[in-house]
Amino acid sequence: MLPKMHHSDERRTSPVPQTVDEAALRLGACKRLLVLTGAGMSADAGVPTFRGEGGLWRGHDAAKLAAPEGFAADPELVWDWYRERRMQVAACEPHPGQRTLALLQKHFPWPGRVLMATTNEDDLLERAGVAGVLHLHGSLFDTRCADACGWQARDSADNGLSLLPCPICGGAPRPASVWYGEALPRGPLEDLASFNPDGCLLIGSSCLVQPAAAIPPEMAVAGLPVVEVNSEETPFSSIATVHLRGMAKDVLPPLVDLLTSKTVQDQRRKLT
Ligand code: NAD
Fold first, then answer.
1. Rounded to an integer, what distance in angstroms lies between the CA atom of residue 16 and that of residue 175?
2. Atom of ligand 1 nearest to the CA of 47
3. Over the stretch 83-134, which tens digit does the pLDDT of each residue have?
4. Which atom in ligand 1 lies closest to the alpha carbon of residue 122?
5. Is 33 exposed, middle or buried (0-12, 13-18, 19+ CB in 10 A)?
6. Which domains does the chain have, with CATH numbers?
7. CA separation (Å) from 55 to 52, 74, 100, 160?
8. How far apart are alpha carbons 179 and 21 in whole angstroms?
9. N or C of the chain: less Cβ packing under 10 Å?
10. Of residues 7, 60, 107, 137, which has the active-site annotation?
């Protein structure tokens, strides 16, 4: 059975913030680098996170709307929220941190490969030019049948599919996002497992939403380098190999610059 999404409230003590060059040297030695992004990555582009500022929508807890119970109680409210989010994301532009990940993917020193995975439902990484993004929690723009007949489609810009019954079985339409308590789609999890990363760059994730939150600690405990970029401390910060405290849009450009530099490439050659 696939793992289900849930919260974990574990918190740890404050780590010592570390430097971009240390992070680049650790990640520069990797051959299969996983870049995992959470809501904080898109916050710099203007997409609110569910926790903290912007976590409330018309007086409702956003996280409670992203749940089967919320949809069962008031489907119209959930759809209003989704339509507003779809329009909000469509109006946002990728920031320099997101664009720089497209460069990392292209110029990461050979024979290294970079796989992008995200718990975000927005399409900002794709619009920044990042290829092959694994959406572990689904896409904000997909609509599917709530009766589980299997129908799912990309919605149009006017959200037309959200207003009509399922074209296959006549059931109610619902957002195709993976909600709290629901299983993650099998395909992206299998792709991630077969990539078998030997290092991880974790950006803007609170490390509270399972099962994706378990990936960085499992890798760190296995002795693999995991670099965390976050504007705040998280439950994972104290066991991260390197913790870079700052905004994704500010921290990522210098990190990627260094990671793709001749200095790091030379260092890598010495190690291999
Ligand atoms: P989350 O659990 O991933 O937490 C956000 C993290 O980002 C926090 O640790 C915060 O300190 C950090 N952060 C905030 N701004 C940052 C910045 N500018 N730079 C670096 N780090 C920053 O996200 P959540 O909001 O609690 O959402 C949980 C789930 O809800 C997600 O996994 C996703 O499925 C969904 N969600 C998606 C989006 C999206 O698609 N953009 C937005 C909100 C929530």
1. 41
2. 41
3. 999 999 999 999 999 999 999 999 998 778 999 999 999 999 999 999 999 9
4. 40
5. buried
6. 1-47+94-140+183-272 (3.40.50.1220), 48-91+142-176 (3.30.1600.10)
7. 5, 19, 27, 26
8. 37
9. N
10. 137
